[in-house]
Specification:
The chain has 389 residues and is α/β, with parallel strands linked by helices. Helices cover 38% and strands 13% of the residues. It has 13 helices and 15 strands. The two termini are 20 Å apart. The structure holds pyridoxal-5'-phosphate.
């Protein structure tokens, strides 16, 4: 019996361990120099002017909404095919949430559905303040089209790129914020790089960047230009907004800096595994992922759909078969609008976003991570072969 192959896993090397240990022996465990060094590594990699590192991806989404002053009475739209946090961040701010159905090829928010929904929303005066497209599995959304809609209808774009660090869109790194007001990353261990827990926001807007820094640390400032009175002395600070403790530590950032050095290698390896799956699975009754021209996917996930026009096998039976054979299949994602919190609060029902629901019925995520060996990719494929024979 082969050992269990998880769907995702971090890659930690000796340099990573050394970087964390050195920081542990240094003067700064938090609020020290590693934080701004990590931020500089992210902003320069992405080609964005500012990066703000925070405690996790969910905190990054929350802060992004706060920086745009999302509040009660506002409406935020996101994709139903995402992790809960892409929608929860709007609820944290008291806003209401609605969804835009996905494109059946990329499984990303459909720019066409977005346009239709905006037209309808304009008629009834219920346009969103913010749209949060999610670069699902590591492939960018149609950001250029979404930017032109944002300009036409007057909303902000927070691009949830928690799957997509290291990916490219129109030959530019995801996170450059050419089209988005802010881009969000997560460094949870299953993601592309890890800081154990961690997240970041990139932006080209200096005001937004300052607001994010303020809100990440209680809303406290020592910057005289932001104060309402003369400092009482060198100890003086003012709280000028209600912020949180969403800081990331120097230990985490030291790990992040070390991981950033291997990012391109990680993404190349993920793309190699995806290519191998494409080849070995092409004859099976599965719909394989498609990456559109102009996109370079970070391949955080490799998702396949069981094709009901070609097989009687259900997703559930295939999933169980994979697990019985020690393959850590997973499912991404249960459509968020069908979750009790969203269903009960906003009255969503099954059938509201049919593409996301139909996709969900058939999808399975297969293992993909940089340390996955060729042999393991072959094992996954031969188990899948076996499932259909
Ligand atoms: C992982 C993830 C998040 C949340 O990130 P955390 O760091 O776990 O808080 C948000 N959105 C998407 C799409 C994610 O995959």
């Amino acid at each position: 019996m082969s050992t269990f192959i998880p769907y995702g896993k971090q890659s930690i090397c000796e340099e990573d361990v050394k970087a964390v240990l050195e920081t542990l022996h240094s003067d700064w465990l938090t609020c020290g120099p590693a934080v701004s060094q990590f931020e500089a590594a992210i902003s320069s990699y992405c080609g964005a002017q500012h990066a703000i590192a925070v405690s996790n991806g969910t905190a990054a989404l929350h802060l992004a909404c706060l920086a745009l002053d999302v509040k009660e009475g506002d409406v935020v739209w996101t994709s139903p095919n995402t992790f809960l946090a892409s929608a929860n961040c709007a609820l944290f701010c008291g806003a209401s949430v609605d969804f835009v159905d996905i494109d059946p090829v990329t499984y990303n928010m459909s720019a066409e559905r977005l346009e239709e929904k905006l037209k309808a929303a304009k008629q009834v005066g219920k346009l969103p303040k913010v749209v949060i497209p999610v670069d699902f599995a590591g492939q960018s959304c149609d950001m250029q089209k979404m930017r032109s809609l944002a300009d036409e209808y007057g909303f902000y774009i927070i691009e949830d790129a928690c799957h997509a660090l290291g990916g490219k869109y129109q030959n530019k790194p995801i996170g450059s914020c050419q089209y988005a007001d802010m881009t969000i990353f997560s460094f949870h261990p299953v993601k592309v790089i890890t800081t154990a827990e961690g997240g970041a926001i990139t932006t080209n807007d200096k005001k937004i960047s300052q607001k994010l820094q303020l809100l990440r640390a209680h809303g406290m400032t020592r910057d005289e230009s932001l104060m309402t009175e003369e400092p009482h002395g060198p100890w003086f600070y003012e709280q000028c907004a209600l912020g949180y403790n969403y800081r990331i530590s120097d230990l985490q950032c030291a790990l992040g800096i070390s991981q950033m050095r291997k990012l391109d290698e990680f993404i190349a390896k993920r793309n190699m595994i995806a290519k191998k799956y494409d080849e070995l699975l092409s004859g099976l009754p599965l719909v394989l992922p498609k990456v559109l021209d102009g996109n370079y996917s970070a391949f955080h996930l490799y998702v396949v759909q069981v094709d009901p026009s070609k097989t009687d096998k259900t997703r559930l039976s295939l999933f169980n078969y994979l697990r019985e054979n020690n393959i850590g299949a997973n499912v991404h994602y249960i459509p968020v609008h069908t979750q009790p919190v969203y269903r009960d609060r906003f009255g969503f029902k099954k059938g509201d976003f049919p593409e996301a629901e139909s996709y969900y019925k058939h999808v399975i995520s297969l293992p993909i991570f940089p340390l996955m060996e060729d042999k393991e990719v072959s094992i996954v494929c031969s188990v899948l072969q076996g499932a259909f024979t």
